[in-house]
Specification:
single chain, 172 residues, alpha/beta, 38% helix, 15% strand
Length: 172
């Protein structure tokens, strides 16, 4: 009887563990090697990189954009790795938070602008430092357009389409 109780408890614990969602970062971080898994997605999805230290925000945006079937989204939450991630991922467009610990969005944008492989990649700043009205006025920060946080997904998609429709899909 005691053995049966012990095994039932073990089974319950195992069932609970199996019901949990586990996320793992499978992608290389400090390498110049391109992401080989990208070859499997085909040419139809546009690559979007979101750099923001708020993991909940980036993950939610990733899920919602990828649900459209038109975008492959990579989220980077460490500003010190943002430039290298962009080099590895080769995004079609980058959303970049301005205020982040260690390296701010302006510095990351400057690094990207001086990188020959990335210099033509559109960058759109995301910031809580301005109001939605200011963002819609057409003002740019350091030459880049910006969106005011919090951002709606339809607004995000419209911004992506607006900036990518002017550029042909890059062949990699």
């Amino acid at each position: 009887m005691a053995d049966e109780l012990g095994s039932q408890q073990d089974n319950n614990i195992l069932k609970q563990a199996m019901n949990k969602v586990i996320e793992v970062d499978f992608l290389p971080r400090d390498t110049d090697v391109a992401f080989s898994w990208l070859d499997s997605i085909g040419d139809s999805a546009r690559r979007i990189l979101i750099v923001d230290n708020d993991k909940n925000t980036t993950h939610l945006v990733k899920i919602l954009l990828e649900k459209t079937g038109r975008y492959l989204v990579f989220e980077e939450n460490d500003s010190t790795r943002a430039h290298q991630t962009a080099r590895n991922f080769l995004p079609d467009l980058i959303f970049l938070d301005i205020v982040m610990p260690e390296t701010d969005g302006g510095d990351i944008a400057a690094q990207i602008r001086t990188d020959p492989e990335l210099q033509n990649t559109p960058i759109i700043f995301l910031t809580a430092l301005v109001t939605p009205t200011e963002a819609k006025a057409g003002v740019h920060i350091d030459g880049h357009p910006f969106l005011a946080k919090p951002i709606s997904i339809p607004e995000l998609i419209n911004t992506i389409e607006e900036h990518l429709s002017a550029q042909p899909k890059a062949f990699r």
